[in-house]
């Protein structure tokens, strides 16, 4: 799993952990290094990776308790409605189910119900170490294009200039070009300072912006010429 993170040495992975989660999982993340860990109360989920992947982690006792009090289906609905790719990580060994009031068939039925009704993956892990590995593997799958470029590009929390009243409009214009989302639009403005400077920049300079490739530049220039 450490190999996944070697490519992020320039852009650390940002992990936001709900402050009610065990410290043991935070320690597992920190062992891998090159991460920015935030610990605060999350309205949805327990773990948020670079604002790209949302995870609700449940131990087997908590999973069963949340079935009884109805929290499980409410939480599943919130995950789906968050519009962020999400999953549930069910942590613990099968023998722990024997200490609950649910039969194996009942558990299987509930897992299928959530997976089918909410289209929400439920991933099984045995311990905290496996839970962190599964979260990072899921994140890797969702951001494989970024990993192929040998970088992570987390969306920064405080990178937007505060005194630019036209910033939202500028970002909106740049986001209209193929292959340019909010992250790349922010980086272009941070490097060049204005839309005019972006549009007049040399191709070589545009390619120096993290995440901007030749195909993206060619697509932008083609639109500007029309």
UniProtKB/TrEMBL annotation:
Keywords: DNA damage, DNA repair, DNA-binding, Endonuclease, Hydrolase, Nuclease
Matching SUPFAM superfamilies: Restriction endonuclease-like, RuvA domain 2-like
Domain Helix-hairpin-helix DNA-binding motif class: start-end pairs: 172-191, 204-223
Any Pfam family matching the protein: HHH_5
Domain ERCC4: 14-94
Record-level GO BP terms: double-strand break repair via homologous recombination; nucleotide-excision repair involved in interstrand cross-link repair
Any GO MF annotation of the entry: single-stranded DNA endodeoxyribonuclease activity
Protein's name according to its UniProt entry: ERCC4-type nuclease
Provenance organism: Algoriphagus boritolerans DSM 17298 = JCM 18970
């Amino acid at each position: 799993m450490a190999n996944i993170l070697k490519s992020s040495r320039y852009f650390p992975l940002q992990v936001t952990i709900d402050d009610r989660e065990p410290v043991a999982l935070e320690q597992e993340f920190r062992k891998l290094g090159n991460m920015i860990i935030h610990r605060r109360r999350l309205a949805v989920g327990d773990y948020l990776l670079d604002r790209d992947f949302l995870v609700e982690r449940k131990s087997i006792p908590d999973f069963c308790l949340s079935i009884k009090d109805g929290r499980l289906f409410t939480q599943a609905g919130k995950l789906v409605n968050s519009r962020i790719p999400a999953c549930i990580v069910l942590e613990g060994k099968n023998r722990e189910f024997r200490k609950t009031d649910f039969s194996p068939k009942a558990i299987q039925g509930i897992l299928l119900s959530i997976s089918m009704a909410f289209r929400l993956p439920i991933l099984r892990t045995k311990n905290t170490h496996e839970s962190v590995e599964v979260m990072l593997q899921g994140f890797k799958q969702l951001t494989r294009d970024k990993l192929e470029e040998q970088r992570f590009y987390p969306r920064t929390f405080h990178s937007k200039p505060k005194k630019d009243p036209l910033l939202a409009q500028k970002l909106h214009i740049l986001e209209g070009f193929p292959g340019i989302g909010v992250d790349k639009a922010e980086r272009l403005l941070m490097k060049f300072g204005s839309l005019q400077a972006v549009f007049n920049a040399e191709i070589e300079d545009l390619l120096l912006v993290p995440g901007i490739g030749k195909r993206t530049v060619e697509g932008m220039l083609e639109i500007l010429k029309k």
